[in-house]
NPH3 domain-containing protein
Amino acid sequence: MENISDDVMTRLLERVVKHKEEHTKDPHLLARLSLLIDSYIEQLRQRGTLTSEQFVKLASCIPKEQRTSYDSLLLALDDILKSEKSTEMSSTEKEELLNQIDFSRVHEQTIAACKNNKLIPQHLITEAALALCAKLRVQLEVTETRL
């Protein structure tokens, strides 16, 4: 999903926000919408035009519990926090950004890519790593019982 026009995304987001009160529960719709939003965030990130305000608005469109992965969001957040403008952010603004991420749903490569960003609290990186360890342990136990 490359080159999503800003106009199309703006109209889509307006409709999403309008219908957000209906609490859409269709997992297939939410998964597709999540993919579209994540693709658009990545597009803005690659252009170098993603702002913290856009990030919060886009990331919060999908309920946290409906997302299966936060990798692309965390990588985008990592870029935002590394930008020079992040030094001007208040701790409340940084916390709002960090609250968009469920660190227990991040994969190994993303943890490795973000571990040296001093603006992401190390306890969150540790939380992500421990959640990954727990998932791997469960997968190992399931595999062992099948053998």
